[in-house]
Amino acid sequence: MDELPEGGGSGTVTSVDLSAPDGFDVSSEPVTGSGTLTFAFANGYQAFTTAESERLELLDPSKVMQLETTIDYGTLTDA
For the chain, what is the mean pLDDT? Predict the structure, then answer.
């Protein structure tokens, strides 16, 4: 296996930015000089574990048995 060379290079960064897909927010960008980019879920979004995802699949209406019922209320007559 090839090994990566050790760091030690030099240079400057003028601007570092980050774009993210829908559902994520990026803040503290762009970084110029020094700083930290913040990457988080946007409001209304969250992650699920595999187990939670499988439980959510059970709620899929296409996977729920459909029941059809007919109720006969009889005839309403005026007394």
Answer: 77
Reference 41, options 25, 20, 18, 19; nearest CA is 25
Q: What is the Cα–Cα distance from 66 to 79, expressed in whole angstroms?
A: 39
Give the 3-state DSSP-derived string for the chain, with helices as H, strands as E and coil as C: CCCCCCCCCCCCCCCECCCCCCCEEEECCCECCCCCCEEEECCCCCCCCHHHHHHHHHCCHHHCCCCCCCCCCCCCCCC
pTM: 0.44
Q: Tokens for 72?
A: 């006969």
Q: In this predicted model, which residue has the larger pLDDT, 1 or 24?
A: 24
Q: Does 30 sit behind a cis peptide bond, omega within 30 degrees of 0 on the bond before it?
A: yes
The token duo for 76 is 């309403």
Please say if the pLDDT value at position 24 is more than 70. yes
